[in-house]
Amino acid sequence: MQRRDLLRLSLGASLFLSSVSLIGCSAETPAANYQALRDDDLPALRALIAVVLADTAASDEWVLPSLDRKLAALSPQMLKLTRQLFDVLNLPLTRGPLTGVWGAWEQASADQVTAFLQRWQNSSLDLLRMGHAALLQLLQMAWYECPQAWAACSYPGPPKI
Fold first, then answer.
1. Residue 77 in domain
2. Average pLDDT over the chain, rounded to whole?
3. Which structural domain, as residue segments, surrounds residue 97?
4. How far apart are CA 38 and CA 84, in angstroms?
5. 3-class DSSP state for residue 7?
6. What predicted TM-score, i.e. pTM, was given to this entire model?
7. What is the 3-state secondary structure (H, E, C) of 82-105?
8. Where does the signal sequence lie (predicted)?
């Protein structure tokens, strides 16, 4: 990527995310029993976990707390960017056109979520491809941090010191 392309991407992303924040994003208040995840984030994340981690023994009850710990450890700027990504998924004004999921995440089928992920993965927009990569990396890191994931990949766990 050349410097000019990076500047264009940064400008476009800033304008887009600024306009989304003006529309009215989710509250900054964490959901009950979470440090960083908000109530509005949970339905989309549950739908994504069911698809992204479908071939694993992953469960919301293990992945969401792990993800929350990871998000709570982020710098304020990185947490803000991650929340903006979640806001794009949560706001009806952006969710439908950008993801193809026009209704609530709770009613989205696995096929709809898969189509959304493929849409972002194959997008001509760098910002959507980066969003796709970020979502997958966050969920996979959160799952593979859980001791429940270790048995499937023959990992004995971290060494005891």
1. yes
2. 89
3. 37-151
4. 12
5. helix
6. 0.81
7. HHHHHHHHHCHHHHHHHHCCCCCH
8. 1-26
